UniProtKB/TrEMBL annotation:
Descriptive protein name: CRAL-TRIO domain-containing protein
Annotated SMART domains: SEC14
UniProt cross-references to InterPro entries, sorted A to Z: CRAL-TRIO_dom (IPR001251), CRAL-TRIO_dom_sf (IPR036865)
Species of the source: Salix brachista
Residue span(s) of domain CRAL-TRIO: 13-164
Any one Pfam family match given in the protein's UniProt record, by short name: CRAL_TRIO_2
Amino acid sequence: MCHHISLSDQEQLVEKLEIFKFQGRDKNGHKVLRIIGKFLSARFLSVDALKNYLEENIFPRLKKKPFSVLYLHTQVQKNENFPGISTLRSIYDVIPNDARDNLQAIYFLHPTLQAKLFLATFGRLHFGSRLYGKLRYIKRIDYLWDHIRRNEVKIPEFVCDHDEDLEGHQILDCGLESDHPRVCGAPFMDSPVTMYSTRCI
């Protein structure tokens, strides 16, 4: 589908879906770049569109100060909306060295076993052990607030829904519990989908 949409329209779609957005800070005071993995679909967005958007809107803000990444892996499926290793590698290759040096941590929310295995093998090979060592797997939204300041990051509604499903399967959390209340952002009215929910504030 991306071949039938102009590059500029694809970049506007990236902006509208808020795939890459700076929101809040982590507990160490570093600004957070939130990435919504579900929308990084090769069917809708080309590598060139993603790279252009990042180079114009994101990378210039990453060169001067330390930052962290919050990556939402919720509902990313290999056969549906996973961008592929070649796409990820192409994006990684254009990240400025200063930005790589300033990256402090990658908070990976809702990792699947497949994703962990993938990153433990291909991730180390293609992105290096230095980047892999910055990964922090976060099973549940509740645990996210141990690392990121609450009320400063909007969590999409579909991520909250998935988290609620996990609540019904406590065994997946290996008995771990958290007393932090969940916080989700307010609705984003211009988005083509209902992205945020106020029901868990």
